[in-house]
Design goal:
The protein has about 210 residues and is of the alpha+beta class. It contains 5 helices and 9 strands, in the order αααββββββααβββ. It has a 6-stranded antiparallel beta sheet, with helices on one face. Strands 7-8-9 form a 3-stranded antiparallel beta sheet, with no helix packed on it. Helix 2 runs antiparallel to helix 3. The radius of gyration is 19 Å and the shape is globular.
Amino acid sequence: MRYIVIVFCCVFWQLGVCAQNVEIRDVFKQMPDTICRYLSTNNKLDLIDFLDSNMEAKISNSFSGTTTLDVMTNDYLKATLTPASLLEMRLLPYKPAGATVDGQIICMVTTYGDSIKESVVNFYTTGWKEIKRIKNPLSSDIIKQIVSSDSTLSSSGMGCADYCAEARLSSTDNTMTVSFALPQYIEGDKIVTKHMNVLKTLKWDGTSFK
C-alpha cells in the first residue's frame, strides 16, 4: 500500500500538479511560445517588469502588434494580446479522485473576435502539460444544458450550435461567467450580433466548472 502511495505521488509531481503553491507570474514566465505565439519569453518578462515598476505594461509582440498586461495577482492574469484577442489565466485548486493532496492547475481562457466574440478554454498542469480529462465548460453538451434551462435562450428557437459563447474568469474567486450572443446579419464588414443578456456563472468544485 505504501508503494502505491509513493508511486501516485511521483506521478502527481511528474505531471506538474504539485502541492506547493506557485504564483501566476511563475507559470506565465514558463508558458511555452507554442501555446501563445504572440509572446516570446522576453516579451513576458518585460510585461511583468513593467507592471512591477508601476509602468504601463505594453510591448510590441511577436507579430509586431501591441500586447498589454492588464491585471496580474497571485493567482489571476489578464492580457490583451491584440484588439481582437484576450488571454486570461487562473490558478485553480485541483484534487482528482484518489488524490491525497491538493494540487494546482492552470485554467486558460482565450477570447477571439471584435463584433462577435468566442472563447476557448484549456486546462494545464503548472508545468504546462495539457489536461484533457477535465470537462470543457464550453463543450456542446454543457451549452445545450444551459440553453435548454434558460427561457431567454430557449425561446429564441435557435440551436445551441448557433450561439457564440464568451467566457470570462473572475479575478477574485474560482468562478467563470459565460455570456451568449447570436450572429444576426452582416453590415458592411462586420457581423451584427444580438446579445442575449444571459449570464451564467459556473463554479469550480475542485475538478470541474459546474
